[in-house]
Amino acid sequence: MTMSLRLSGWRSLTESELWQVPDGPGVYEVRCPGPPIPRALAKDHEMILDIGESKNLQTRLLGFLRCALGRSKTGHMAGWRFAHLSRRLSFRRRFPVRNLEFRWRERRTKKAANDAECARMQRYLRRFGELPPLNYKFNWADWVE
Question: What are the chain's domains?
């Protein structure tokens, strides 16, 4: 697993931007710029909300956006969680959906995308002591010391 895998630059999470994303496998991150997010061990100055992977980046990120906007209740668990939390005014003010950004890196295979996601999650866990706010699972069997 490569810990130094570089992702694209940050882009606005809009349908027009997502049509520019490749439809192959890859890893991605979603954030909402603003004040750093307090985590267990440190503040997250990149404001990462979700780390994910997919066999089809474009479809997966479109699913996140549609769920986050409340247009769909299926297709992306983190997007659904974002929409659910957005019912609270304090969450909407802190993380407006219009401010969401994403970045990605295409991989050759689904396994390579999964490995890249695992490496990024492990790096996040080591640094902050917990998963990003919208992530809800991690395959602890893949943990590398």
Answer: 11-135 (3.40.1440.10)
Give the tens place of pLDDT for each residue, 83-130. 999 999 999 999 999 999 999 999 999 999 999 999 999 999 999 999
Question: CB neighbours of 7 closer than 8 A, spacing ≥ 6?
Answer: 27, 28, 29, 103, 104, 105
Report the predicted TM-score, pTM, of the whole model to 2 decimal places: 0.92
- φ/ψ of residue 35, rounded to 5: -60, 150
Q: Token digits for 97?
A: 């959906």
Closest CA to 48 of 24, 78, 71: 78
Q: Could you tell me the two tokens for 39?
A: 């985590």
What one-character DSSP code corresponds to residue 130? S
**Tally of CA atoms within 13 A in the half-sphere of 15 that contains its CB:** 6
